[in-house]
Amino acid sequence: MKEYYDAIIVGTGAAGLYCALNLPERKNVLLITKQEADQSDSFLAQGGICMLRGEEDYNDYFEDTMRAGHYENNKKAVELMIRSSNSIIRDLLHRKVTFARGENGELAFTREGAHSQPRILFYEDITGKQITQTLLNEAKTKENIEICEHMTMVDLIARDNICGGIIVMDEQNQVYPVRAPHVVLACGGLGGLYKNSTNYPHIAGDGLGIAMKHQIKLQNIDYIQIHPTTLYSKKPGRRFLISESVRGEGALLYDRNGQRFTNELQPRDLLSQAIFAQMEKDGTDFVWEDMRPLGEKTILNHFPNIYQHCLEEGYDPCREPIPVVPAQHYFMGGIQVDLGSRTSMTGLYACGETSCNGVHGKNRLASNSLLESLVFARRAADDIIFGRTPVKNQLLQK
Ligand SMILES: Cc1cc2nc3c(=O)[nH]c(=O)nc-3n(C[C@H](O)[C@H](O)[C@H](O)COP(=O)(O)OP(=O)(O)OC[C@H]3O[C@@H](n4cnc5c(N)ncnc54)[C@H](O)[C@@H]3O)c2cc1C
């Protein structure tokens, strides 16, 4: 690791990697991550990534996103995300990301809760891994990108509300400064702070804490998304997600007597509330999710990873309902950014789950977050290339 870079990016999830890949090769970029580069929530995304399928779907896609977000969304951010989706997907295909296709080779689309149309691209039930591993592989081939694993950002270098780098800590607890005129926080959400979460435990809101220390503006920090369906387990650690697209494809929820008690495809916050209420009424720690209506072929082909994990936990989803419980899943709030992913501190950007541009409002629509991460990571890169650079940044000197 050097002392000086053109840009430092904190986080090797979809947002961090895509931002790095969108910077020109003449820029020296440092990417750091707390653990191994492939240990990010982006790798865990199962369901898929949304795409506007055509002008005829624009109003529905916009309305679905707004309705899920309780109409608290930033309309301009929503429009930008939806309108950018085709160029993002084209770019991913160009970078050799694979998505499921139909018999004639056309892209296949699935549906999740609160979507009025199937508009989600997927790859089995490991879409996030498919996208993020492809980006990581590409980043590793770039001479201008240095990836430093097991390196933790512990502070920013900042004075007079101008950022000039970060303070990092290595595995031996050595602490040192790394300087750059542009710093991008792509350090994910805060699930690691919760007892029950689908997130990696090391993704624990570090960027937010550091931002608070420097009086950087935050937004909607109480907007936490609880996912309605994670596999119930008595074991400690990360909760295993049963993707919303399982319900989108026809799975049903039952109470303790095997009776349906709610609409399985309502927005996540409302469904989680319905499940919690049912658990209380039944005096149980979970409800049942029945995947059998999907049929064995769909379960095995579309959801092989979920199927395998359930088997390992002692349940066969082709033959019996599985126990599910809501758990913390996503953070809609974050470090406040504008549409160029700029924070309130000069030279400091934030993108992906750690940021809040208002696109999700109070509640995120399924499969909008990978798309949002990529759209606004690219906008951060564009702003670094074409935007304002602090003219005199004395922090860049030793
Ligand atoms: C189980 C699961 C399933 C999901 N399914 C979907 C889906 O189907 N579709 C969808 O759109 N979204 C889905 N999501 C949400 C989506 O995956 C995330 O919101 C998105 O990938 C966030 O990307 P990111 O790059 O912002 O952060 P992450 O991918 O979480 O990466 C954060 C990075 O920051 C690093 N980091 C954190 N703190 C520090 C620090 N102090 N110093 C150095 N590095 C640090 C981490 O090590 C990591 O590399 C899912 C999430 C989960 C958990």
Q: Provide the gyration radius in Å.
A: 21 Å
- What small-molecule ligands were found? flavin-adenine dinucleotide
* Poorly predicted parts: none
Strand order of the largest sheet: 5-2-1-9-16
State which percent range the strand residues make up: 15-25%
Helix content: 25-40%
Mean pLDDT: 95
User: What is the helix tally?
Assistant: 10
Distance between the termini: 16 Å
- Quick one: how many beta strands? 17
The secondary-structure class comes to: alpha/beta
Shape label: globular
Please outline the major beta sheet: 5 strands, parallel
Order of helices and strands: EHEEHHEHEEEEEHEEHEHEHHEEEEH
Structural overview:
- This protein is an alpha/beta fold and 398 residues long.
- It is built from 10 helices and 17 strands.
- The strands form 5 sheets. Strands 5-2-1-9-16 form a 5-stranded parallel β-sheet, with helices on one face. The chain has a 4-stranded antiparallel β-sheet with strand order 11-14-13-12, covered by helices on one side. It has a 3-stranded antiparallel β-sheet with strand order 6-7-8, with helices on one face.
- A hairpin with a 5-residue loop joins strand 7 and strand 8 (175-179).
- The protein binds flavin-adenine dinucleotide (FAD).
Key terms:
398 residues; five-stranded parallel beta sheet; 17 strands; binds flavin-adenine dinucleotide
Summarize the helices and strands and which ones pair or pack.
Elements: E1 7-10, H1 14-21, E2 29-32, E3 49-50, H2 58-68, H3 75-94, E4 120-121, H4 127-141, E5 145-148, E6 152-159, E7 162-169, E8 175-179, E9 182-185, H5 206-213, E10 218-219, E11 224-231, H6 244-248, E12 252-254, H7 268-282, E13 287-290, H8 296-302, H9 304-312, E14 322-331, E15 334-336, E16 348-350, E17 355-356, H10 369-386
Parallel strand pairs: 1-2, 1-9, 2-5, 9-16, 15-17
Antiparallel strand pairs: 3-4, 6-7, 7-8, 10-15, 11-14, 12-13, 13-14
